[in-house]
Amino acid sequence: MAGKKCCRLSALQMVLIVLLVIVTAVCVALAAVLIKKKQKIFKFSFPSETNPQGTPYLIGVGRADCTGPPAEIPLMGYANSQQKAAGIHTRLYSRAFIIDDGSQRVVFVTVDVGMISQRLRLEVLKALKEKYGDLYRHDNVVLSGTHTHCGPAGYFQYTLFMLAGNGYIKASIEPLVSGIVKSIDIAHSKMKPGRIYRNKGEIYDSSLNRSPHSYLNNPEKERSRYKANTDKQVLVLKFTDLDGDGIGMISWFAVHAVSMNYTNRMVSSDNMGYASYLLESDKNPGELPGQGGFVAGFSSSNLGDVSPNTRGPYCVNTGLPCDYLNSSCPIGGTKMCQSFGPGADMFDSTQIIGHNIYMKAKELYANAVDEVTGPVRFAHQWVNMTDVTVKINDTHTVSTCKPAMGHSFAAGTIDGGGDLNFTQGAVEGDPFWDGIRDALLGPPSNETQKCHHPKPILISTGEMNWPLPWHPQIVDVQIIVIGSVAVLAVPGEMTEASSRSCQRGDTFKNTEVVIAGLSNIYTHYITTYEEYQVQRYEGASTIYGPHTLTAYLHKFRELAKAIVQDRVSELPVGPEPPFFTNVFSLMGTAAADGKPENTSFGEVLEQVLPLYRQGDVVSVTFVAGNPRHSGDIRDKTFVTVEIYDNRTETWEVVYNDASWETRFHWLKGSNRESNATVEWHIPQSAPTGFYRIRHFGHYKELQGLKPIITPYEGSSDVFTVTSNYYYSDN
């Protein structure tokens, strides 16, 4: 009996246990639903809050050619009127990254261009609106320029920039808009579940501060927090699919893309572009540049006072050090004070700096294990930067100014000095130049002079509106957050000390804050208040006055707080920027092409040699047309280097004009005649065999008054590449 009772009790217990399990499961399920709903409602509330570990994002990456006309158009960056495009060193690309957490998505685009202009951004957003409706907008799309100084100008709508770049040039801006949109299209079409990992390290041999005197004017207490006067950190985001296969990478590092100096005449993506070229070559084996699924974006950061010319400045005419305070030479002034290095020439320096950045990013990418998880968030405002007032304590407020450029702006920097007798560090005006300014442009108002003190104003751009405003008033401020990474889209060149103020804020806890420079609109430089007092080039180019940084900090903190507190929808949108319809162009139409008598376009003028070794340079010159006549050159090439495949008896393209190893020089001569010289710098790894070099182009002729564009091509003789001159193994 006792045994039977025990068995009956055990059965009852089992029933109760089963019921308990069922009730518990139901409760857990209900709790999970409630928690999930709560997380959805308050997903922005805590910056450290993350999605459940292992929840993937939707990720898309894309790359597209955005190279513009490589002839006659000014290159944007050095403001050197003589520096006009005359060929291609490397092509320019737009690289897009889309991240979606299932509820929100952001787009980050890094473009091989000097900077993003307001006009370029507005035209890109207009094209995205037409194609995608409200999916990609001003608040969730960030466009950032790598800051190469060797891309075509002509994509601005404010007078000062248009004067520097021969106006608004449709042939320049259209490839940029189309290339950026295409890179987003590709990323959009390839979106799939994936993961993001972050890693960071430091590079110590690829940058120096080009205005150390300004930097030293910052408080010693502030400077003592850091080991160096430039930011050595590299941040890498690694993108993989769910199988762990890499699909892309973004890297941020602070250095000017000015290894290619102002004497260069070829379109070039400079050191950042070379780093992308190397990593994409690694990850897309056997593919030509710009092809293959892996996308490596090397983006600009807080590079305002950071130079890649690591041998530093000296007087090129004497070899002696430049004056420390104003970076000038006793004979020749600022033009003779130049910085170089680390290589023997600008190509060598570009290669060394780019390789250093690539190697560190490659290492960080390979070892990235810190997974980024959490919601995607963003906030954006348009701000009238000429009228921002910030309360700094109970009794004092500070304000921004109408834009103005100081005298030291005209002095340039050690990366490219000005031609006139201006020097950096000028805190007093010059009667001669002020008199010319007053006669031609008018003097600055007393109000503007007082607001910008101690800057001696050379051009009061904020008070000049003919034929269009000379500088922007309405500026984008924007933050995108991807889990534990916050990207501040800074609309200019922020100095190292300025960026520290942004990155040290405690609004985003447990979050990596990165500066994405040259983003969305260009407003020159952003220095600290103390650096501004010194009035070197960077301070003279801080256009909204000494409290520019304070205003930006205030605005970025407002955005950050709105994200953290889930109040983004309450932020005022701000005044929308103008889209001018009366932009002007100073570029004439390219003339019809001429050619020497008894020749044809594409014909070889200077032939290759029959035999070369690895490490040699092959050169061949063709009768050429003006490259402007080739129109939209995206996804095309002016050059191929081809190897003969004995097995298939066909020619295979192994390099083109996007390759680091080739250089396409266009030389305009007299009588409308021009020629193209193609160089191939044979790498040591090149296979021995038979090769040829081909050139493609278009020429224009007039039939009556009607212009006719005709394609042409030419080919060198076949030549042999061998390991030595004494024995050919072919």
UniProtKB/TrEMBL annotation:
On whether Transferase is a keyword of this UniProt record, the answer is: no
Gene Ontology terms, cellular component aspect? apical plasma membrane; endoplasmic reticulum membrane; extracellular region; Golgi membrane
GO molecular function terms attached to this record: metal ion binding; N-acylsphingosine amidohydrolase activity
Any idea which residues are catalytic in this one? Answer: 307 (nucleophile)
Sites binding Zn(2+) sit at 147, 256, 493, 525
Q: How is the cofactor bound?
A: Binds 1 zinc ion per subunit.
InterPro entries cross-referenced by the UniProt entry? Ceramidase_alk, NCDase_C_sf, NEUT/ALK_ceramidase_C, NEUT/ALK_ceramidase_N
Task: Give the UniProt keywords, A-Z.
Answer: Hydrolase, Lipid metabolism, Metal-binding, Sphingolipid metabolism, Zinc
Q: What is its EC number?
A: 3.5.1.23
Q: Where is the Neutral/alkaline non-lysosomal ceramidase N-terminal domain?
A: 57-553
Q: Which PANTHER family does the UniProt entry name for this protein?
A: CERAMIDASE, NEUTRAL CERAMIDASE
**What protein name applies here?**
Neutral ceramidase
Organism per entry: Cyprinodon variegatus
